[in-house]
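Severity: low
Component: inverse-folding endpoint
Summary: output formatting inconsistent between runs
Steps to reproduce: submit the following structure tokens with default settings.
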């Protein structure tokens, strides 16, 4: 990206106003507004007109205007805390698409046999120390009888397993 203007300016847009902001404009007459403390552009706009001291543009929400309040930050003697290259990098990073989230699906193996349809003690004896059987028994309980004591015991077992 070729930034042609890096200005300190007072900027007003649709529903917002900042006394001092940084405006970057590239060679395609596209600009961004950065506000203090942010590494992401506050607003994107298309330049309508620009002069040495002021300019106008359009955002998706409406018109913006700016009036220059300081040196161009592209000059080596300008006392800008963040250089043009850093802001340009933040602008480019904001334009990159968000990476697709990686969704992992974990298929649990089927237990060797069905959950017994007996007392809570019978079910817990069948589960033993087997986490997969505990998951199967909990699913079975949640779909059927929903015995509070058995459900709590199975949930504790699975929670303890997740902490290890």
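Observed output (run 2 of 3):
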């Amino acid at each position: 990206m070729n930034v042609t203007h890096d200005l300190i300016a007072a900027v007003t847009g649709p529903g917002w106003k900042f006394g001092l902001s940084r405006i970057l404009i590239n060679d395609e007459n596209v600009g961004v507004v950065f506000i203090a403390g942010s590494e992401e552009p506050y607003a994107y706009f298309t330049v309508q007109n620009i002069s040495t001291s002021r300019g106008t543009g359009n955002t998706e929400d409406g018109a913006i205007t700016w009036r220059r309040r300081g040196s161009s930050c592209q000059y080596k003697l300008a006392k800008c805390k963040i250089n043009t290259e850093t802001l340009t990098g933040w602008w480019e990073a904001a334009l990159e698409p968000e990476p697709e989230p990686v969704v992992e699906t974990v298929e649990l193996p089927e237990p060797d046999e069905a959950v017994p349809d007996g007392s809570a003690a019978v079910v817990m004896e069948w589960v033993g120390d087997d986490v997969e059987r505990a998951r199967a028994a909990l699913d079975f309980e949640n779909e059927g009888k929903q015995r509070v004591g058995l459900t709590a015991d199975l949930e504790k077992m699975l929670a303890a397993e997740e902490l290890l």
